[in-house]
Structure formats: structure tokens, C-alpha cells
Write a structure and sequence with these properties.
Pathway: Purine metabolism; IMP biosynthesis via de novo pathway; 5-amino-1-(5-phospho-D-ribosyl)imidazole-4-carboxamide from 5-amino-1-(5-phospho-D-ribosyl)imidazole-4-carboxylate: step 1/2. The chain has 291 residues and is of the alpha+beta class. The chain contains six helices and 16 strands. α1 packs parallel to α6 and α3 packs across α4.
Length: 291
């Protein structure tokens, strides 16, 4: 008889299963925008996100260890060897996750651009005068946040505040852990952004999450450099001084803004365009087909 597993945690688009000494993380085909889960699914989205994270985890394991064990369902309990989970599941080490979201910005956009226009800073970091929207920054900046519960908003914190937060949880180790995750975040971004540029994709910003393994080693967890956790822009047509098109939920957000009375159902054209954008990002970055 096949053991049936229930998710211990269900986010907007992902499910986490505890299988004893490890976890199975499933990226579904659901999509959320403006904090709402929409009623459509985006074909292949879960598989694209899983394959993309695997690609980056493999590429960066020399910089920092990560939690990925396998994406082959043959390595997982029999329950996961069905079409529902095939290609969308990642078998992972269990970690004690650190309560800091590690955000790195290489270009000025979004909330960072709004802040810069007001006072010349992003998350308290003063930047050179005269920057335009979407400009590349002289050096990537690290702007951590707290990790809020579902429905709440993350709050920006300084590096010193991240030290204090971690020190309360891990006395005597807060500063070391804060410095390790900051340095790993910047190193990962620099390596991957340079690689992406060679494939005609700009990684404007992204976030990483880290945890500790049973030995207290800092390990990269969660997902990595997907269109759901990053801003990807096409290099072709990149023009500072304006917003940029992106490889993510742009079609969805645009349609929702134009149709405020929507009931959470997207037109088929928007679904197809969004699915195509996710596939295009993966294929450009990896040089491999999604299928």
C-alpha cells in the first residue's frame, strides 16, 4: 500500500511535504499576483521553476552548499511518482531557516527607485546622484528584510539589525551568520548575473534564503533565481530611464490592473503569453528545451 503524504505547509504557489529526515518541495502551476492566488493555472510553470532552481543550484554549489538532493521522483517515496508531481518536485535537506530574506539589487527599479526619487537612498543606503530608473548600480547592494508570515509584509532592516535578529536566536553567532549570508548573497548574484548577461538576460534583483544544517553550516535553501523570486529583463531593448519588460508575471499584472473587476480568472491569451515567458527565460538561460 502506498503511503499518502499531506503537505505540512502550503504557500501561494508551493507545497512542502515532510517525509521524515528530509522534505519534498513541490512548485505548483498556480500563479499569484498582488497577494491573490488566481483561479487559472499556468502550464509548465511548476516544472520551469523547479528546473531553473536545479540549474542554478548545480552552477553555484562551489560558492555555498544548497539544500537540493534530487529532482528525480524515482528518488522520492512512491506517492510522488505520478504526473501530479513529475518534474515539479525537489527532494531537499531539512534546514533551520534563518528569519532574514536576503535581497540583492544590481539595478535601480521598483520600490528602490521610488525611495531613491524621494531621498537618494535605497533601504538607507545612499546612492550616487543622477541615477535614472533601471540604471545599473556601480556595485550590487544588499538590502535584507524580515520574513513575514503569509499575508503580512516583509520589513526592510539594516545589516546591523540582521545581526541583532540572528544574535537573539543564535547567541554568539549572530554577526558571523549575518556576514556569511550577506557575503554569499553578493557572491551568488555577481556570478549568476554575469552568466545571465552572456545569455542576453539582465538579473535586476533577486532574493535568497538560507538555513543551517545539523552541523550549523549555512546552506542555501528555498528556490533560486527563478522569475518568481527575481526580476529578469531581456538585454535586447534595455533602456535606462524607463521601466523594462520582464520574464515573469508582467502580462498577468498588466491585465489585472486594466480589469479591476476581475474575478480571478485570466483570459486564455494572458495564460499562454505568461507560460511562454517562463519557458523562454529557462531556455535562454540554460540553452535547454523545457520538454
Amino acid at each position: 500500500m502506498i503511503t499518502e503524504w499531506k503537505p505540512i505547509k502550503e504557500g501561494k504557489v508551493r507545497q512542502v511535504y515532510d517525509i521524515g529526515d528530509s522534505l519534498i518541495i513541490v512548485a505548483t502551476d498556480r500563479i499569484s499576483a498582488f497577494d491573490n492566488i488566481l483561479k487559472n493555472i499556468i502550464p509548465d510553470k511548476g516544472a520551469v521553476l523547479t528546473k531553473m532552481s536545479k540549474f542554478w543550484f548545480d552552477e553555484t554549489s562551489s560558492i555555498v552548499p544548497n539544500h537540493m538532493l534530487s529532482t528525480d521522483t524515482a528518488d522520492m517515496p512512491e506517492f510522488f511518482r505520478t504526473g501530479q508531481f513529475e518534474g515539479k518536485s525537489m527532494w531537499c535537506k531539512k534546514l533551520t531557516m534563518l528569519p532574514v530574506e536576503c535581497i540583492v539589487r544590481g539595478y535601480i527599479t521598483g520600490s528602490g527607485w521610488e525611495s531613491y526619487q524621494k531621498n537618494g537612498t535605497v533601504c538607507g543606503i545612499r546612492l550616487p546622484e543622477g541615477l535614472q530608473e533601471s540604471d545599473r548600480l556601480p556595485e550590487p547592494i544588499y538590502t535584507p528584510t524580515t520574513k513575514a508570515d503569509l499575508g503580512d509584509h516583509d520589513e526592510h532592516i539594516t545589516f546591523e539589525e540582521s545581526v541583532n535578529l540572528l544574535e537573539k536566536l543564535f547567541p554568539g553567532k549572530g554577526e558571523a551568520y549575518a556576514a556569511q549570508i550577506r557575503d554569499a548573497t553578493l557572491a551568488l548574484y555577481k556570478k549568476c548575473a554575469e552568466y545571465a548577461l552572456s545569455k542576453n538576460i539582465i538579473i535586476a534583483d533577486t532574493k535568497f534564503e538560507f538555513g543551517l544544517d545539523e552541523n550549523g553550516t549555512v546552506v542555501l535553501g528555498d528556490e533560486m533565481l527563478t522569475p518568481d523570486s527575481s526580476r529578469f529583463w531581456p538585454l535586447d531593448g534595455y533602456r535606462p530611464g524607463q521601466g523594462q519588460p520582464s520574464f515573469d508575471k508582467q502580462f498577468v499584472r498588466d491585465w489585472l490592473r486594466q480589469n479591476p473587476d476581475h474575478d480571478g480568472v485570466l483570459p486564455e491569451e494572458v495564460v499562454e503569453k505568461t507560460a511562454a515567458k517562463y519557458r523562454e527565460a529557462y531556455e535562454l538561460l540554460t540553452g535547454k528545451s523545457c520538454y
